Amino acid sequence: MSANDYDSAVRVFSNIRSLRALARETDYEVLLDIAEKVNVVVSELQEEEKEKQKKAEALVAKKKEAIQYLESLGLTLEDLTDTGSNSRRQHREPRPAKYQFTDEAGNNKQWTGQGRTPKALQKMLDGGKNLEDFLIS
Predict the structure, then answer these.
(1) Are the beta carbons of 72 and 108 closer than 8 angstroms?
(2) Backbone angles phi, psi at 8, to 5 degrees
(3) Is 60 exceeded by the pLDDT of residue 65?
(4) Which of 61-90 are b and which e, b meaning 16 or more Cβ less than 10 Å from the residue's Cβ?
(5) Rounded to whole angstroms, how far apart are CA atoms 26 and 60?
(6) How far apart are CA 12 and CA 6, in angstroms?
(7) For residue 108, what are the contacts with CB-CB under 8 A and spacing of at least 6?
(8) How far apart (Å, rounded) are the C-alpha atoms in residues 128 and 117?
């Protein structure tokens, strides 16, 4: 069924006047067959909805039970989720530089050894120098 056919069917079935017009043009036996099939689909959807509701209620009950258990231990949810700091992510100190080199402009630069190798240093390495030559002592 194309999207256009689907939209047309929804418009007919959701509007009582369009549905009555369709019923006048359709054989009574066919209408009974359609009604029976629609009722089956609606019953299936109601059962699915009841199952979803039961699962949701069971989840709520389990959550309440877990909270009661925590309370019996003298704990709260905040105790379990507390990381010991107010910020979500702890910032670490910047790493110290391991290498020092001079770029093309004559500026002294430093590099920690992590991440992409700076272009000026990479050119020197490609030129035959060793990374150990640039170690900061």
Answers:
(1) no
(2) -65, -45
(3) yes
(4) eeeeeeeeeeeeeeeeeeeeeeeeeeeeee
(5) 48
(6) 10
(7) 100, 101, 102
(8) 15
Whether the model clears a pTM of 0.90, i.e. scores above it, the answer is no
Closest CA to 99 of 58, 129, 55: 129
Integer Cα distance of 135 and 99 in angstroms:
5
Q: The tokens 């002294």 sit on which residue?
A: 108
pLDDT category, 9, cuts 50, 70, 90? confident
Determine the length of the chain: 137
Give 3-58 as a DSSP string.
HHHHHHHHHHHH-HHHHHHHHHHS-HHHHHHHHHHHHHHHHHHHHHHHHHHHHHHH
Token pair in block for residue 11: 């418009």
The tens digit of pLDDT for each residue in 18-35 reads 999 989 999 999 999 999
How far apart CA 18 and CA 12 sit, in angstroms, is 5
Q: How far is CA 41 from CA 30, 35, 36, 55, 104, in A?
A: 17, 10, 9, 21, 75
Residue position matching structure tokens 């530089």 = 97
